[in-house]
Amino acid sequence: MQTKLFIGGEFVDGLAGGTIPVFNPYSGEIICEIAEARAEDVDRAVTAAKAAQFAWGRADAADRGNLLLKLADAIDAHADELIELEALDTGHPVRDARKLDVPRTSRCFRYFGGMADKFEGFVPPVYPGFLNYVQREPVGVVGQIVPWNFPLMFTSWKMAPALAAGNAIVIKPSELTPLSTLRIAELMRDVGFPAGVVNVVPGYGHTAGARIAEHPEISKVAFTGSTATGRRIVQASAGNLKKVQLELGGKGPNIVFGDANVRAAIGGSAFAIFHNQGQACIAGSRLILHKSIADEFLDGFTKFARSIKLGDPLDPTTEMGPLTSKQHQERVLHFSQVAKDQGGEILTGGKQPDRDDLAKGYFVEPTIVRAKPTDRVSQEEVFGPFVTVTTFEDDEEALAIANGVQYGLGSGLWTANLTRAHKFARDIRAGMVWVNCYKVVHPGSPFGGVGESGYGREMGFEVMREYTQPKSVWINF
Ligand code: NAD
């Protein structure tokens, strides 16, 4: 298990010599102590990245792509190990990590490995006697800050396009879940990424993260995390006017219409909120049900929630693991009280499971709460296995409820009516809309939000634009 910082192609201790304990959220025990990156380590990493970026950005794009493809193969070859690492510090059930996180990670590196030599500039028609061509240049040194909910997958979302575009990176995984990112760094070293192109600095947000956000030689920060931290990053970025890309919180509406296939909607809505213990920015955390199917839906959905198998993330039959930290468990549990205080009704869950074998883990039972759309639990991101339910009479009301929050990230609707589906897809205030499905992602499809969910997009050609800047060259002939 790798526990050191990765700077300039080597695994090193932090200059101050501090360490951070990494917890197993199932047992509550410390798995290991990792080296702590502080501001001065970020500075070292930026120096290494700067030194490497010039050659990396000018290398044959196909060579950059080939390294990403090799990395994708190495991830698949080490899938078992990565699955276990991810389960150990996040609490992801291995069942999910095997089916989703690891294949999505290698797929992302593979996609952008293929993209590296296909992202083109253009030649606009200009005045006679002039040739103008526009090339896309890497931004330079990019700082990347990621949260703890999908550490492995987000490492690939951040690293792959930035590297394909020719940037060098300094990435800070969450202090809670650094293990899989450090293992990826080892695999990168092993497949031959040049020293300094990738630097990994696990540290706390207020020290290492804050230094990345303010660093004068970092040209762009790509951040995934909470809206509150996103605001701080924007403020800190003002010093050198760095580019900022923000993937922030969400409060995804999930509308089930009267004409929906209720059975499919129940299964899909359970995945939307309970997968990864609800710790997903795109979770479908607000169920908005048409009155005509509300009882039938809730009956099936509540049964589904109660049947989810909680357990040890390393057990291949476990369907839901613990939340990732004790502090977060307490926060999510507190929201049940917040709901009750405003007249909400807990239909199921709302507490820790009453089981001796789970007592040390940071578990929360799948929770369904009937609440008004204006209640705090319907407005604030809970980020746990916690879904609010409300009902509507007509389409207009459904849309008003769906759009009645500050966030605009993921959204979903279940209907057999094509016209209604397109109309809502147009009118919902969100970066992503899923019709008769939820939380489908692909490296080719833009991912990101509007409003307090942030700005900028991951994935596809959109993200390649984020990690490059156009240079316009004029030739007089
Ligand atoms: P967080 O904002 O507390 O932390 C995210 C990262 O930022 C961590 O690495 C942390 O160390 C760092 N950080 C904290 N303070 C910082 C500071 N002052 N300067 C720089 N970096 C700092 O978020 P979290 O609790 O780790 O993650 C959960 C949040 O992430 C939720 O709000 C969730 O919706 C959001 N999220 C968004 C997306 C998306 O794509 N939109 C995806 C996943 C998670």
From TrEMBL:
Its EC number is 1.2.1.5. SUPFAM superfamilies: ALDH-like. Keywords: Oxidation, Oxidoreductase. Residues 18-473 form the Aldehyde dehydrogenase domain. It comes from the Bacteria. Pfam families: Aldedh (PF00171). InterPro entries: Ald_DH/histidinol_DH, Ald_DH_C, Ald_DH_CS_CYS, Ald_DH_N, Aldehyde_DH_dom. This is Aldehyde dehydrogenase PuuC. It comes from Devosia equisanguinis.
